[in-house]
Amino acid sequence: MTQRLTRAQLGVTDAMIAAFGETVFALSNNHQIRRGDPVRAKDFAAIEAHRHELGMGDAEIADRIGLTPAQVTLIRNLEERRRFRTGHYHMLNALGGGKRYRAERFVPFQDQFRFGEEALRLRAAFSFDPERVRSHVEQGWWRSDTLSGWLRRNARERPDGTALVDKRGTVSFSGLAARVAAIAAGLHHHGAVRPGDVVAVQLPNGREHVEILLAASALGAVTTTLYMTYRGAELEAQLHHSKARMLVAPDRIGDFSPARWLSTHRSELPSLAAVVIVGAEVPGTIPFERLAAGAPALPRDRREPTAADPFLLLYTSGTTSSPKGVPLNYHQMLTNARVGIEEHDIRAGDVVLSAAPFGHLYALYSVEMALGGGAAIALLPAFSPPALAEAVERLRPTHLFAGPAHLAACLGAGLVERMDLASLRLVVLSGAAVPPDLVHAFAPHLPNGRICQLWGMTELQAGLYTRTGDDVDVAARSAGRPSPGTQVRIADESGRALPPGEEGELQARGPSVFTGYFENPEATAGAFTPDGWFRSGDVARMDTGGNVTLTGRLKDVVNRGGVKYNPQEVELLIESLPAVHQCAIAPVPDESLGERACCYVVPRPGAVVTLDEICAFLLARGLAKFKLPERLEVLNELPLTATRKVIKARLRPSPTRLGPQPATPRQGREQTRDRSIQ
Amino acid sequence: MEKRPEVDPVEAKAEIFAYARRRGALAVGVADLDAIERIAPRGHRPTDLMPRVRSVVSIGVGGQTQGTWKVPAKAMAYFGSTETRAYSCSYALAFFIESRFQAPSVYCPPDLDNEEGPRVPLQSLKLHAELAGIGARSLAGDILLHPEFGYMYFASVFTELELPADEPLAENPCPAPSCVDMYRKQGRTPCMKFCPVQCLSGKIDDAGRQAEMHYDMAACAEMSEQYEAVPAVLAEAMAAGDETGRHDALFDPDHKMLWYKMSVGSGGLLAQCFECMRVCPVATRAELADPIRRARAQAGTGTGTGQ
Fold this sequence. Notes:
The complex is a heterodimer. Chain A is of the alpha/beta class. The longest helix of chain A is centred in the first third of the chain and has 17 residues, at 173-189. The radius of gyration of chain A is 34 Å and the shape is elongated. Chain A is built from 23 helices and 27 strands. Chain B is α+β, with helices and mostly antiparallel strands. Chain B folds into 2 domains: 9-172 and 282-301, no CATH class; 226-264. In chain B, the strands form 2 sheets. In chain B, strands 1, 2, 3, 4, 5 and 6 form a 6-stranded antiparallel β-sheet that branches. Chain B is globular, with a radius of gyration of 21 Å. Chains A and B meet through strand 1, helix 4, helix 5 and helix 6 of A and helix 2, helix 6, strand 4, strand 8 and helix 9 of B. Strand 1 (31-35) of chain A pairs antiparallel with strand 8 (210-216) of chain B, so a sheet runs across the interface.
């Protein structure tokens, strides 16, 4: 023993430690070999012959290498210390006492929370203000809700309750939970999807869409939805920007084959590791049903997703710019859905039908609420007026989430009068400006239901809605009041909150508002006011009761000689003309006034539209003269986003000069009206 | 000097065994002192500790309960203080021999050798137990196993009382037949396969007996004997560049657990693991390794103790 003598006193130098450290360690009993069973056999000869292999004492080592025993003890101790690692109990903690160590399954502690590089970049988009987080948590908005947690709860509390209902029949919550668990395992094993990875989904509103959404959630992966109308360029842009690791798509969308398209574009999508196809098998892809069959179950002790984990990476519809990625976590989405369940009166056993595609956040909102409320999700794979009418009659929804165009189409097709709408307790309208006339026209057909108007955005889900107890007039003329937890204000250009009745930008903040666009710092910087309000870009006014009426988009403003107005109300009026199918108003440059309003119209088949008729109609409805359009472009179709919103940036008037209106208007030609409005 | 009363060694041995069993020993044996003297290295022989020693009594107490082996709870990675039962039993036994037979006795401390430094035990309790016939060396780093009682903790008493020695076990229960089968198929026994730090390897001969046992004690110690954890934390704190770093080093959640374990005397972060024994069929499923079965056997037959 060293008797607390120092290295110097023992005569041990650094050079000696370096020279003898390995040797002393190797000769010591740190590594032991026993041959046979000599002690039990009292085979003293064998014991002596192999004694050195069981490790030598320090004195023996000292004799062997020519040091003193104390020097060897010191060097051995230093060498043991140099090699010694602490913290191995993490390994046992991770394994748990009763488990067997399996090297192939063991994930070192420091790697357990490791995400892929792309997943980390996505997580980095969540830069929450700590004060806001504290506030959301303390006020109870942010809890521990996750989508897979809601599914588990339903499977536990109402295993036989209906989770999905479609033409094929029903799926119970326990059945859905089992199927989701199997698909989650398949995603992991066949598709190499890890927590935090992005799974891109381009599917109709079918069982597979719900299943993949829930399975990705169970795995801790992130879903990005692709609109069914997306083809080559749009697909590539979103798959590339989202760094999707997997695409789940049908074998065909009309005459488009996603798998075939990918076969020639895969090299441009380095993050894409697997393609899963629903429908007919396609070589080089994974059949969807294989995901659900045969994969080993996920480890029971894997890390479950938490409410703060990313859940969705959705893209804005891109009416005014390129689509922007909006990362959202469970806190943001499910807090909003949880309060919506109560506000929209969704109860266990209800049936929630979305006419909007699940690729749209509005439809996902209905899915979240159905799951959170223990209601069934009714599935309408593709909207058409007859399909919606059939779904309502067959599936008996209590809640219908639709866009105004859906109802307008049903009304236009004369289906509403013949539909049995008695099951509906609530019809929610959102996704586009809601014409008041539409609400008034539809409401009388609901014997047991109400209409709700809702305003939302990808960046905050449901921000405003009218309540079930509101008068129909409120739902017709406004998008209602803020969802619980959401704060809104109408602000002028300087960010000053405006009093009721004044028009300004609608701004919001609260627990469901996003924190920034994915890898788009410029857009993020422009999306928030210095004091943290999200700038919606929508123009609105609030009445004294707090109900907010959307009047247009900020970027749609027409600045006619310094007089600014938003043309949305004009567009809605023009679209109420029987001859008009669609209408959009956008400014065109003007040398004297700066801008004038140009009206782009798609007439109904066989109808003729003239600027004079439009203006006469608008004046008759009491519109101010300065808001009258001064030019008319008749088109076959308007440029639309995948969510059927007009892309006004693509509206371009034909080259012309102001002059007399042509005598015989034709489609694709312009009409102008030279007016002098003071 | 007063002469000790005459004692029949066989009767004395029976009384000593009976006492040890009453105190909780499952197995008791007397080791061949001459054999220990020949095998133990110089400085670690019984006569080095007690020059007039005539007998070495070795006792084994039960290891874990069946429930403990089976629970999945992480907290049970360490079983806690079980070995102290063996020490208290042998401590009492030393008093008993002195009071009953007036023969000076020593409870052999399960301690490190002050003369030879860390990782060197004063005496090999394992050697005593093996020669006393209450355990045989296993492939799991020479941990002793008993064919009936499986895995036990051992302690020894040195005494000047002359007692007839027992023989080592005639057969080594390790490897168990199922382990031999696994070795034939996979080249590893359960203890080798499931060791978290992979410190075990070895060979089994054609007759199903141990041919070689390889044990990386340094690797095992990193898992099972984290005695350097405390100085490592202190060294880390001293090396920290600022007050925050020092504070974090001392009070981070992991280290706070360490201070707790130390303050309450729990060895959870200092000595743990037991994975090789958890998967050992002899350790956990030997006929009387299971306290439940042992109690039933005792109730039914009145047997159940060792030699």
